[in-house]
User: Fold these one by one.
Assistant:
Number 1:
Amino acid sequence: MRERLLGWYAQEKRGLPWRGEREPYRIWVSEAMLQQTRAGTAAPRYARFLARFPTLRALADAPLEAVLAEWQGLGYYGRARSLHRAAREVAGKFGGDLPRDLESLRSLPGFGPYLAGAVGSIAFGLRTPAVDGNVLRVLSRLLDLPLPVDKPEGRAAIEKEAQALLPPSKPGDFNQALMDLGARLCRPRRPRCGECLLEALCAARKTGTVAKRPVKSPRRAPREATVFQLWAEQRGKLRLARREENGLFGGLWELPGWMAKGRPEPPEKEWQRACAKHLGPGWRIGEEIARAVRVLTHRKILFVLRQALPPKGKGRKAWLKDEDGAVWADAETLAALPLSNAQRAAIAAGRRGIEEGQGRLFG
């Protein structure tokens, strides 16, 4: 099986920009991107990211905001924050070179079993598995595993098999071969079993359970949350605030406001307090201009946007200023700052609301 799979990989591997790469930093960047992003989406962004941060030291020296901005469109920004934190830790603790042993790799921010296994096996030849979604699917079908792969017992069975299958040499190629097999042949839907080089060894193929593997636990309904935000726009500039680095959307920019669990309807005085807190004395709450729903992996977020009206009787220069963690952003700045896709969708909804006349525009 090993020889067959490695031979197939040598001939049929996907033409991805990081294939054949031996520089550990570049391998790390590619695998960090691939954790929650399709290869086709990650490929052009990989080159762009490395053009901006060509070395580990360049990444470590960069401000977090620059890293988040370059990560825009890839989603799951926690990966970018971990990448940045780990780069700084490697620069300070390991002399700027990624450690070559699995234990040290696992100690770095963001290095879970998959990332440590992928970087360790591909960059350093460590005989350790790298189990992503493609590998989970391939092995659960090869074994005809009836256990949920998202539970400890099922995951342990997959990890054990992945470790046992690894060849003495070329573990990185073998791990990537399993990934490619899952991406190209052993697909989630309409698997190409008749073309698969492992068809004769596949237990699920023999029992007719390919479509039922892998087994997964019933998905929980996403938790509901509501984000209440202020639309303060003057002279073509929109007020934005930067979130704290930890938590959902950490370090990203957004319309000022607050998040609440569920679907509450806050009283007017709470909106007015938000105006004073985020914009200053004299600001008043206006009409609702938009609502937008975005569904993330584990959350269903409702954005509620209301206009904020500027103080009366004051010159704009008194309050139209940037501050630490808050800016007035024109269209160019808005495009450059790191915002979540969900926030950009909410801003687009707010813009439509303004253009359709829902809410009163001052200034």
Number 2:
Amino acid sequence: MAHAAEPKLNIFPKEIAGIPGSPPSEYKDIPDTQAQPSTATQPVVSPPRTPPGEKDEHKARKISQGEFESERHFYPRVLNAQIHPLVQSFFTLGNDRIIARYTHLNPQVKPEHLREILSYQPTHFQWAGSDLFNVTTASGQRQMIVIETNSCPSGQKSMPLLSETDEHNEQGGYRQVIQQAFQSQLSKADPKLGGLAVVCDKNMMESSGYAAVLSDVAKEDVWLVEWYVDDPDPNVKWEDGVLHIRDEAKAGGRNKMMAARAYDFYNSELVDTGLGIRTPETINNVTRGEIPLWIHSMGGHAVLKVPYSNAGQGVYTITNEVELGAFMAEDHHYDKFIVQSLVGNASWSSVTRAGKFYHVGTIPNKKSNTFVSDLRMMVAGSENGFRPVCIYGRKARLPLTAKLDTDVNTWDMLGTNLSLKLPDGSWTTDTSRLILMDRKDFNQLGLGIDDLIDAYIQTCLAVIAIDRMASRLMANGRFDYNLFRSLNPDNALLKEIQQANNDDF
């Protein structure tokens, strides 16, 4: 057994936040998308924080230059898809024209303020993706709102290629991420330190794609290694601050609580600029006993979130006593939760201080059904500022209803996450609800280029907020445990952090 010394670059930072929803606990629970919403309430199950994997099928392996093959790293339907002209136009705008367009439509925003934001160089959070809802108010004011922001976001395998003539066209956004977010760090690394590795716990299609492109860009071999939280004999270990791998990190965790606090802090700094991160109303650090009180204050409709889950897990839509009772009866590992206003239909959304937001949704289909949809906007930051990398959309399993039955399970109408847990504990993706940015799918979303610009700016603002929070927590080059504890006083989480970082405490 051989070991690789410390990687030259920690390429894949931990995730900060995730995607709304509590999908079925197993693949067999997926309802027929043509069926009407079921009135039976399914049991609410929270999967493990890190999904178990098929370790024997994906042993650590070395990726060499020239190994990238499109068929391995894109969905089959993406390989033959043609990018929608409007989406292609958005990607070719550039930040200068985006600033000119946005400030023309929003004269309260000064161009220099927006230019400063889009030119921001992240210190810790160079690659991210926000999930956004297209919402409106009773008065018809449409806007994009941020639901969650992810590091190591998925999306490359779902994005049609933007160009048919570029030299590295087949690598699509994979190469954009490596070049924009990480290439400058590669040039600063000392080759004597060791090798490069991509460490992941799911989504091998994209993880292996990044490893292959990283090998091409760095012109050296890259190790692709899986690492799971409960693995008794992982192929990765830390010794004296050095990461070792068995030669036979694109892994992410999340903290929606800290992301929400970061948004609040940054919004207070942006108050005079006409800009701000738009989110549903969010209550942080809520104890289990307080949850019914907060839900009642929002009109009986809300979203409950376990702050550290991902892949759509640990998020619960609450619109009736049955759903609330199921959540309260569940055994939760962590002490604190997030209560967020629910975005539903006009007649059954949460009541907040800012009024009601409700889903614009997809363009009605031939049956006149509208589905809840979201948009993933992926960006990368470098010394040249931000740039969009890829976009995709998702829709819920069942159509949005005008009237909400008192005993209906609302997840099927509101949940857009595509991750599905299989009976053996592994994961798959429900690609039937994936909306590509191609000529066939994009029009379902009913979005224009100004909506994409709005989504891009909201994503950049969210990423800056989280990056600035990370910089505060690492102000002296070490993790500020006391500051973190004051912002996120969850004893169960704090014990886990201490166990993994004994040297810092």
Number 3:
Amino acid sequence: GVLDLRKLAERVDVGRVEEVSWQEGKIAVRTRGREETIPLEEVLQDRCLSCPYPTPLIYDVLLGDPLPPKGENEALLRQVEELEELTPPERLRYWKEELERCIRCYACRNACPLCVCQDWCAAEARDPHWISMRDGVKEKWMWQVLHALHLAGRCTGCGECERACPMGIPLLRIRTKINAELKELFDYEAGVKEGERPPLLTYQVSEPKIEEPKW
């Protein structure tokens, strides 16, 4: 798994770490004049707590032994479910408070391995002019919605967008929700089956799990 530096910073002074060693289910962190042993699950990134694919599905060389699945993303899905239990005004207030902290540095975009159109990015394009340069929550939310929908069917949930965010905004919750909807509607997971076409690149007159509108 990958350590969450924000979680680790709550336990030790990460600016004074001298040595880190891995033990069975624990991590030992030595700072100046102090050593603390922490259960690994308390400082792992949320995406690692219930990772369904801890061993790469495709690789040339595998270091170490294959690892069994840790779950089906329950840790991340639980966070999404907690948000869904809120009323719409409460969810709106939650995201307003989170996105007010956004500084529009686009680190989430730059860290994303699948965001490949940076030369023509909607965040900076003036034709079409999707997002203004005003520093408001509407523009910030518009950017996150555009980014998430553009990656729908391609996002593997790697969490690099959230890890790179200097403001600690929980962006992976948006991606996790969209990925869950895609799996429910199309039985599709990005990056799992080689050669499988993403839902947005396919067309059927009717979809088995989508009820047609009754005009």
Number 4:
Amino acid sequence: MQKRYGFEISSAKLVCFLHIFLIIFLIGCARNGYDPSKITHRPRIFLDGGPPIPILDEYDIAGTQLGSFTDIFNPGEEARIYGIWVGLDRRAAMNLQKETAKNIGRNLNLVVNGSVVGLHPIEATITNGFIPFMFTHRRSEKEVYSFYQKLETSVRQIQLELQNLRN
């Protein structure tokens, strides 16, 4: 038995304490908030008229942003057109640059859970890794925000899934 700091600790208790501390520490490091049940939207990007293989999938997407445009010729509430800006990781951005350089004049389709939800006409090579997609159908503001919230949550959870796979 060792007597330090006014109390006694046996070697067995010390080893047990260190094992428990190590287990708690490792579990705490491994948990990063990943919850697979929160992945409800798996976005993929296809080339319109191309093979049914996505040029970019959900693991290439680094983040999303919601944006809107206003139709200046129509002053009503229904004049607001919403879109999703998709940001890609570095490797995917380089792949996107190559694909858009070869396919100017075609469209990119944003497909979520098997349905085309957005499109982007390729007018020039995309060099910055961001793709603005306009929704293919008009949606109410409430529907847009609900969809975006689910998409953003899914993208964040997919990034955490990737992080877990790398560790």
